[in-house]
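It is worth pausing here to work through a concrete case rather than discussing structure prediction in the abstract. The textbook approach is simple: state the sequence, then state the predicted structure, then interpret. We follow exactly that order.
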Amino acid sequence: MRAYFSRCLPHRRAGRSGRGSAGRAGRVRLTRRGRIVVWALALGLFAAVLAGVLVIGPAVNAAPEAGEPVEVVVRPGDTLWSVARRHEPAQDPLVMAEEIRKLNGLPDYTVHPGQTLKLP
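Step two, the predicted structure:
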């Protein structure tokens, strides 16, 4: 039985400290394949961050500043009420429609496709 285990288990050589190879602290050495995997992961992470910056960055910069009116083009089938509901769903559409009408100097609540409206 001892002969069997002596062939299966690696021999431990005692170093100067006498603790064997398990006691030695050393650097992890990667194989060529391991280095390629690490570089590929780093490159993938860099590409993901870069893509996020390129996609999200312009969207953040495109947001209008506070107090600056937003312009919207009226689509076919739109009413002043639907424009108000689409762009400010949290507010009362009647109040919002009245603000849009006053801001644009409209005589009534009639809008036409292609017309540009400023939103408060």
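Step three, interpretation. The CA atoms of residues 85 and 91 lie 8 Å apart. The chain has four helices and two strands.
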